[in-house]
């Protein structure tokens, strides 16, 4: 019956029927869902726990004692401090990432992140599994989070369909929203019942143990759902015996340690590389309790997707959760040598968003001894994918290039739209490295527009290389460095995993009107794919709109920083997935802004639409952009891009509040380090301050726009895996307490509260796809109200001390709710 309903919706032009869109858009199939963990929480003032710990100067020892205290009531409370934990050199905060183990097997979504400074736990997130009652493990046949996700999604479609105005046109907001929701349903739910059907197939008979046959069956089951090729999906389902014998499993064996099985699988249909996998547990809510499900965790790299999937280890091999490491921006609706002679580029300079707002100019290669010590066109032979035959002999020697190939970025054309990239075409600027190429697109007949765009590929690749390197260097200077998981082939001995520079495809031939970024864990190359946009004649090239490139590269930033560099599954769906989009929009908009305030639309040049590719421009004017936290409940705000618009708008309001207070700096790049490594304050930082022991405090940006970038990036490091809007808001506030001592806490609270994300905002009935009923809250904490004095001593908090569903981690919050009056901030324009 449900399939018939969805078919009827599709026939009505509501689900997947995009023919009425102004321009045909390349929409790749993507799957992302997973169970909601109601017990997961983020705590920003856990002083009552820190006071129980023995004094220690070692943050790792503090974390170990702290976590031991947290899990003391959990049977088999085993855990491991992950190797990607690190200390932020700028703030002095140590970010510890902890993974839970049960019976020697990791709980893949059992995470604790602890933020420590000077022996004090500043904040922590906790999603560890805590058994309730006698049942520890889920009964396989009774557990189906995939079906629960699809049922809740289907119910929303039914509700919205019933409320649809029958007279509304095909381009009405309601019909557009249902088309979007229909796509999400079709992509994620089309095969939801197949595992139960396939469980009875002779080729899928359950084995007695978790041998390679179970791995291949579970993986093939996932590929039936994941492949966008419907013919292949049908063949995999109808004749699995044809494919299973060809899928070769190689298990990894360890000399020591209690490691669960890990493996690679070759010859996987529709995968472009061997699939990595391991045995793990994931948590599955069952009614009022929480149980563990044994799964195979797969990392599946496909042409347009890179999935991290959890599939039941036992038949029926149901998908428990899946995250797509690829993120879209569719129309939605060695010794360091002395500084060499640098390259020059004829490009749209940093801050010029697109060809409609400025002309190209000659820009110089950025040499920064912190961010890019050997410049943009050099890397050691030992880290050079094109020099494998020289890696052992000349590994430490530096290779200098005259193409768009270096330590941070490999940029090239990808007209074939495939996974080949190593030997793709790149412009060669010769020994003087003058990248000065013609860009003069001409209007042509429609059938010749693609060839016309290809004529300026040298200029396109140069622009993509320039913008991507500038983004790398900017993010680095605000704390996205080697130990925190940035993208570099060589890390200069500074920690982190190497050999993961960004692979940047210009004019990717796999589609139009899009852009995406794939973010695997630290040590694997990020992949940025930029497309042509057939929204005008001549075509418009997404590589030339800096905001789109910045947005995509920001996915790598937020994914690597949230939950730790080795965990790419923390921003998969719902509010967390939406914020992954929102951070990209916010950073792109902040970078292009100037001291004369203006509203900004996202992607307007490439899309050839004045209002851009979002529902509203980013604006302080509530008539122009009315978004509040409650907006997430509206039709059309189920997808991650729409959720992200709201988050970006909230951040935009926060940023303007801080600009009003601290002023605006024209150049977001901090001063370059001096020869002795010290960073001059210039007019960028406040005067250096020192702790009582003489150690320097973190440098604080003195202007509002640079400060907010720092706080947002610091907040990503503090927040937990799979954060909510509340968690990310609290992490930014915690970041200000760490950096400035909290001098902007009330300004930040008032800005968030002005758009409904105050202390009294809440959400009820949260669903796996981001649904629920939200309530705007316009209150701020008591200490931010000038007419209500706070009590002299803060009460200890653990998230919800008194069972009233209020976050008591903010000092005196329960007292505030009782005593303070609602406070709403409105901007004067």
Please, could you describe this protein's structure?
By secondary structure, the chain is α+β, with helices and mostly antiparallel strands. It folds into four domains: 2-30 and 138-324, no CATH class; 41-126, Roll (Nuclear Transport Factor 2, Chain: A); 344-569, Roll (Elastase, domain 1), CATH 3.10.170.10; 629-819, Neutral Protease, domain 2 (Orthogonal Bundle). Helix content is 27%, strand content 16%. It has 18 helices and 26 strands. The strands form seven sheets. Strands 1, 2, 3, 4, 5 and 6 form a six-stranded antiparallel beta sheet that branches. Strand 8 (262-266) and strand 9 (275-286) form a beta hairpin. The longest helix has 23 residues, at 640-662. It is globular and about 65 Å long. It starts with a helix and ends in a 10-residue tail after the last helix.
